[in-house]
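Z., the sequence and structure:
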Amino acid sequence: MSAIQTTVAESLETLGASILERSGGRATGYVVAHEELNVATTIDHRVELLRILRDDEAFRFNQLIDICGVDYPEREQRFDVVYHLISYVKNVRLRLKVQTDEDTPVPSVTEVYPSANWFERETFDMYGVFFSGHPDLRRILTDYGFHGYPLRKDFPMTGYVEVRWDEELKRVIYEPVKLVQEYRAFDFTSPWEGANYVLPGDEKAGAGK
């Protein structure tokens, strides 16, 4: 580890310890990994902790840049809801994690960070995590009337339909999902150095040798 990496890790360790101390028990732990600070909390304390992270002069995480889900089907609380924050004042990023299951609603944080609106809709659409108190919790990426949650690990790969505009019929049509790319053998070596076969279009390249 370089001196710069050591300094960054120490700074994040100090920040993590400060968050634990100043959060009044709302943060349950932290880990520094890959030069990023990961803070854990619970559903009940998450909104209050986000307010502290935003408003406390020691932190000033004034921007929520993303919310995403992670699915662990083998766990009782199968979902991680992950909030990515950035402090432009302190020039540091933070990842806040909370666990939930398929049935427990997660309170919306749109009142704390208005940018959470579409992020929460996307997490609901892709994982089925319900955000209570959201002003307009509708699907945002899938089609109207879509059933299922595409980013869950147990989401089936067949049996669904896709929607597209048909230029001949001049209307939207539904049809079975089709994977149009045929099987291909990819060669990840350089075609000028490693390929042991003739590439299409190169048939004449070695004719004069």
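The chain has a mean pLDDT of 86. The chain has three helices and nine strands.

Let me know what you think.
H.
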